[in-house]
């Protein structure tokens, strides 16, 4: 029927499921994306499905403290995914992942390929970073600038070493694999997990800890560069200010106007020295063209 | 070595993993359990492992608005599970379930047996109830007592009917199966999901909606009675006042002192008429001995 066809000029796209993802808004401005890691992880996975035409995706930021949000979702917290056509609201990470998993499976998208050795290498990184962060922030209390790594107590050094060792082991893994993403040339759930966490470590390390990912981890930096060139990551990434604000709030640190009044910016570049090392090693061939 | 033996008189129990579960505290009193459904679900699963000696379990209530909590968990929300011996903190429902799943598998506990037909029957019940709840509370705004089902608008009646139809279909399933729990004589994850939700529907139905689970759903009521006789459920169940307070908060309803000042009580009995019907049908043989 011509009329029906006209109403749905793109019959194909109309049959794709529409998935709405509600993500936590920034504490600075409710129209901006907040720094919730699970929200970014699912957004990246959905983006992967959207990119290859498997699903339509809409993302909405929500202020979890607003009355309207509370009433609508009765205590559920973002990430929340809604599939209107099925009248289904997924409020649990297990359910959201379950739905994305089934869609990926149905369309043969290798988003959830398993690799226990990758899983093992990345699983405790963020936890260890949080332990380091908490301990060092406590240690630096009252100081005008965060202390350098040489000056921290042996106890905090233990946390610091653990983070560096694990970053090093991921660097080695990436060197061995020599692939764009953790499992190969396409992004999997492991990348959706690791990329946002590495970015938080970098942004928070620089702003609150006087810490940077060691510059000699060339393969790891190359991987971070890949994140900065992956649409799924860039689109779903909060601004630096929103990431810093999130952690300051949790750590009850004084929030100065630097973050709240600044125009939001996103650090998606890597240090020049590291970039040269990547070029020298012939990684990321497109870097040469810069 | 005798000394080592003396230090660990119960060698077996010392080798069991200790799992600490942090659950959301009640908004009335931070020492009391709050009404978070995921927290109760995991608590019940952990209780099942604890009961048969597979794990040691400790549960702690946390006030998510306290500075101490925020600092310690940096934005993560309960349920949170900690396994100190492994220095692992599980902050994601997928991770918590993954750990419980592996423990259950290791010790052959049939907690995660799959049954797609059960899954299908129970999956939308709570969502449909929330739609009914929100619509009816909005409809009843300004009224002194909630309206009766006869007086609600056709639109809300649709939500109401949907809830009743689904309760009826679960009632039928239970009648067909004729077993203590959904899958048989031992509790599975499906029961840990359904039992707390049915209890919330009952408590909130009575207190805010002028609604009760239809009394002729004898098998369903018998199942609720089973919950009230299941240690894993009773131990992890919040008081009525804490459940009501949770929903009132989310719905921005006036909180009167009835809930906040009352001594906490738990409704773990069922209507007499229903109890008689259960007796007549010869369900739950132990009921006769009351």
UniProtKB/TrEMBL annotation, chains A, B:
<dbReference type="InterPro" id="IPR036282">
    <property type="entry name" value="Glutathione-S-Trfase_C_sf"/>
</dbReference>
<dbReference type="GO" id="GO:0002064">
    <property type="term" value="P:epithelial cell development"/>
</dbReference>
<keyword id="KW-0812">Transmembrane</keyword>
<dbReference type="GO" id="GO:0005254">
    <property type="term" value="F:chloride channel activity"/>
</dbReference>
<dbReference type="GO" id="GO:0035150">
    <property type="term" value="P:regulation of tube size"/>
</dbReference>
<dbReference type="Pfam" id="PF22441">
    <property type="entry name" value="CLIC-like_N"/>
</dbReference>
<keyword id="KW-0472">Membrane</keyword>
<keyword id="KW-1133">Transmembrane helix</keyword>
<comment type="similarity">
    <text>Belongs to the chloride channel CLIC family.</text>
</comment>
<dbReference type="GO" id="GO:0016324">
    <property type="term" value="C:apical plasma membrane"/>
</dbReference>
<dbReference type="InterPro" id="IPR053823">
    <property type="entry name" value="CLIC_N"/>
</dbReference>
<dbReference type="GO" id="GO:0043296">
    <property type="term" value="C:apical junction complex"/>
</dbReference>
<protein>
    <recommendedName>
        <fullName>CLIC N-terminal domain-containing protein</fullName>
    </recommendedName>
</protein>
<dbReference type="GO" id="GO:0005764">
    <property type="term" value="C:lysosome"/>
</dbReference>
<feature type="domain" description="CLIC N-terminal">
    <location>
        <begin position="17"/>
        <end position="97"/>
    </location>
</feature>
């Amino acid at each position: 029927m011509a009329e029906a066809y006209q109403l749905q000029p793109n019959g194909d796209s109309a049959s794709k499921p529409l998935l709405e993802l509600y993500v936590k808004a920034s504490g600075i401005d409710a129209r901006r994306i907040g720094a919730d890691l699970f929200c970014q992880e699912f957004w990246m996975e959905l983006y992967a499905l959207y990119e290859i035409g498997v699903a339509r995706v809409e993302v909405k930021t929500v202020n979890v403290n607003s009355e309207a949000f509370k009433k609508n979702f009765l205590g559920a917290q973002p990430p929340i995914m809604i599939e209107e056509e099925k009248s289904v609201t997924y409020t649990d990470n297990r359910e959201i992942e379950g739905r994305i998993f089934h869609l990926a499976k149905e369309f043969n998208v290798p988003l959830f390929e398993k690799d226990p050795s990758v899983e093992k290498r990345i699983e405790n990184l963020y936890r260890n970073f949080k332990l380091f962060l908490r301990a060092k922030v406590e240690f630096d209390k009252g100081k005008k600038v965060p202390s350098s790594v040489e000056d921290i107590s042996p106890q905090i050094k233990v946390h610091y070493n653990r983070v560096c060792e694990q970053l090093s082991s991921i660097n080695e893994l990436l060197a061995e694999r020599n692939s764009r993403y953790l499992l190969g040339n396409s992004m999997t759930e492991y990348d959706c997990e690791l990329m946002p966490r590495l970015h938080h470590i970098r942004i928070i390390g620089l702003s609150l800890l006087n810490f940077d990912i060691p510059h000699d981890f060339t393969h790891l930096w190359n991987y971070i560069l890949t994140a900065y060139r992956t649409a799924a990551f860039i689109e779903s990434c909060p601004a630096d200010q929103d990431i810093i604000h999130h952690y300051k709030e949790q750590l009850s640190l004084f929030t100065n106007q630097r973050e709240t009044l600044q125009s939001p910016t996103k650090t998606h570049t890597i240090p020049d020295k590291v970039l040269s090392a990547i070029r020298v090693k012939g990684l990321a061939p497109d870097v040469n063209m810069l």
